């Protein structure tokens, strides 16, 4: 029997202790973004939660606060026809003419998630299901984009118990989502000196204020730290 008739897997999907479908993951992500408190009973129906690390109830996400030490546990998501893998592993398999049957993805424990992480995971779950990633473009991504999404998984920020990680740096929601993509009423401009302005004061051009009708309204300005 030649080597081309073999297939190998680093881990079998049935060996993963926690298994979820892409639909279940999207429901989990939505509930996490809504609220993720530590509680022993649901705030809506007042039902006592099961003795597991995290659970969903009435559309809300809960951690169980009865655990003295939190049992960290990731979960696996079945991704048929999509093999998320390192580029070097893909090259080595091609050279050896080996096939791979690991058609699932391992996602970190929700206790480490940030808002940015949940947005990346939700986008990938829609990609796996063949659904449009965003509702306003209705664009379907081709299977050739697997490598791009796998890179986003590797680079997605996780919160390892530090509140500072959630609010500082390039991995925050504002830097990656608000200022990291094209959006309505967004523009770029140069900061130039003006002797009539007070310290920490910025003046917008009159025609910009008139065009966007932002008189007496709050706006967000992103100032480069080096300026």
UniProtKB/TrEMBL annotation:
Species for this entry: Trichonephila clavata
Alphabetical list of Gene3D superfamilies matching this protein: 2.40.40.20
The protein's name in its UniProt record: RPOLA_N domain-containing protein
Superkingdom in the source lineage: Eukaryota
């Amino acid at each position: 029997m030649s080597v081309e008739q073999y297939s190998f897997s680093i881990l079998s999907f049935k060996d993963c202790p926690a298994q979820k479908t892409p639909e279940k993951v999207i429901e989990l992500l939505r509930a996490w973004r809504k609220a993720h408190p530590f509680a022993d009973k649901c705030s809506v129906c007042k039902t006592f939660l099961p003795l597991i690390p995290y659970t969903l109830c009435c559309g809300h996400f809960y951690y169980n606060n009865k655990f003295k030490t939190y049992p960290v546990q990731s979960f696996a998501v079945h991704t048929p026809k999509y093999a998320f893998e390192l580029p070097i592993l893909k090259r080595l398999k091609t050279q050896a003419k080996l096939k791979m049957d690991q058609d699932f993805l391992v996602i970190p424990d929700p206790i480490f998630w940030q808002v940015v992480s949940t947005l990346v995971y939700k986008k990938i779950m829609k990609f796996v299901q063949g659904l449009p990633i965003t509702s306003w473009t209705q664009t379907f991504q081709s299977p050739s984009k697997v490598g791009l999404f796998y890179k986003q998984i590797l680079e997605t920020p996780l919160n390892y118990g530090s509140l500072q990680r959630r609010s500082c740096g390039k991995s925050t929601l504002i830097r990656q989502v608000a200022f990291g993509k094209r959006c309505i009423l967004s523009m770029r401009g140069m900061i130039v000196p003006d002797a009539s302005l007070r310290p920490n004061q910025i003046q917008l051009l009159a025609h910009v204020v008139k065009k966007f009708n932002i008189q007496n309204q709050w706006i967000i300005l992103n100032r480069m730290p080096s300026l």
